[in-house]
Specification:
Layout lengths: L1 H49 L21 E15 L2 E12 L5 E6 L1 H6 L7 E6 L14 E6 L2 H46 L4 H21 L3 H27 L10 H7 L5 H12 L1 H21 L5 H30 L1 H8 L5 H5 L2 H36 L8
Length: 410
């Protein structure tokens, strides 16, 4: 009888603990809603006001691969290749790839020296080439009639995307699928709101903050669901976003980042009627840190909740201290992640600059590297500041909502 009674008491205690946790979560959601709902409404209202196309239109450059009159594009499969001297460039080797359109005869396509040196073209590969108009009768041709444009990458990129989707869904299951769909929504905000608004000359700092906030609202709730943990992480993310935006706004001006270095700078200036390139850099500094910022805040929020549910009677100070131990480890690893991610993306620039005979401090503060250095520092500072804030908010929420539901000692 005593043994049966003991199991009954345990079952009652388990049900009581489950109800207590459910009450804590519901109260936490309501408490955070009073803060996040006005921020969401403000974000939507700002997006409506800043939405591109209101009285102005973004400039259009047309298709950069549009053919000149009389010329056309074709896609063919390489049958064979022949190395020969480039016309008009003694000492340089060009490659002639004999490519055939499906059902047609092979034509000689000239492959430029940079492609030959970088990789070359192999038999069996699909390429895209430009067919120039033939010279008039009796006029000697000025150059090759078929010129290599690019490789056709549809199949390998499609397979890689499919493999990525399979791996994510297999490991993370339904949550992984939701995360990928949320990523698609984030790119939709980037393509339909942020980029066109920047091209129209709207305030870049405001565009970056509003667009990033909208992305974070959608991505976090869609991937992780509506819960107190997600809302706490979102609040910490928005704080980190605000800190990053303020710091980026100061750093771009103080470090005199002009954005004029690179092949695309003058093209952007001509296509956008003088868009601020420094404003584009500012917007990029804010957006580039969103993924890592989201990662650390959702991890910290979950850590606080798990620690609290394991020991509900833990004091607020002790709970904060325990969660920050996890946060410090995350900070250390994530700072490396940011630095190496940016270093990998800027590897060609780093290699070129390293070949110059210049002092190290001059190299790091040069126009070629200053933007990457500022991006690493600004992103890391916003990330580090978001962790204690997210932890403090999570501790405050779980303690405030859970205090009255803790069972009194018998």
């Amino acid at each position: 009888m005593g043994h049966t009674h003991s199991h009954g008491d345990d079952s009652l205690l388990n049900r009581s603990e489950l109800r207590r946790r459910q009450v804590v979560r519901r109260r936490a959601v309501v408490l955070l809603g009073w803060i996040l709902i006005p921020l969401a409404v403000l974000t939507v209202a700002a997006m409506v006001m800043l939405w591109p196309g209101g009285g102005t239109s973004a400039p259009s450059a047309g298709n950069p691969y549009a053919a000149a009159p009389g010329a056309s594009f074709a896609t063919g499969t390489v049958q064979r290749t022949v190395a020969e001297d480039c016309p008009g460039a003694a000492g340089q080797k060009c490659l002639t790839a004999y490519a055939a359109v499906k059902g047609g005869a092979a034509v000689p396509v000239m492959v430029t020296p940079d492609i030959v040196q970088a990789r070359g073209v192999k038999a069996g590969e699909d390429i895209r080439y430009l067919k120039l108009p033939q010279a008039s009768a009796g006029v000697a041709p000025m150059g090759p009639q078929y010129v290599f444009i690019d490789f056709v990458r549809t199949v390998p990129l499609g397979l890689l995307a499919f493999l990525y989707a399979v791996v994510v869904v297999a490991v993370a299951r339904w949550r992984g699928l939701r995360a990928m769909l949320g990523l698609g929504g984030a790119f939709a905000v980037l393509a339909w709101f942020i980029l066109p608004a920047l091209a129209e000359g709207k305030p870049p700092l405001l565009i970056a903050v509003v667009g990033s906030s909208a992305i974070m609202f959608g991505v976090l709730y869609f991937a992780h669901g509506f819960s107190a943990r997600t809302s706490t992480a979102l609040l910490g993310t928005l704080f980190g976003l605000g800190a990053t935006a303020a710091l980026a706004g100061w750093a771009v001006d103080a470090a005199a980042l002009t954005g004029t270095k690179g092949d695309n700078a003058y093209q952007l200036l001509s296509l956008t009627n003088g868009m601020s390139l420094s404003g584009m850099i500012l917007c990029g500094l804010i957006i580039s840190g969103l993924g890592v910022l989201n990662d650390v805040t959702i991890t910290q929020s979950s850590a606080v909740w798990e620690l609290y549910e394991l020991a509900p009677r833990t004091g607020a100070r002790e709970l904060f201290t325990s969660a920050m131990r996890i946060g410090r480890d995350h900070i250390a690893s994530t700072v490396y992640t940011i630095a190496f991610a940016y270093a990998g993306g800027a590897l060609p620039v780093l290699l070129i600059v390293s070949l110059y005979d210049r002092p190290l401090i001059d190299t790091l503060t040069s126009a070629e590297l200053a933007e990457e250095v500022v991006r690493i520092l600004v992103g890391s500072i916003g990330l580090v500041l978001a962790i204690p804030v997210t932890t403090a908010v999570a501790v405050a929420v779980v303690k405030a909502t859970g205090r009255s539901t803790e069972p009194h000692p018998a």
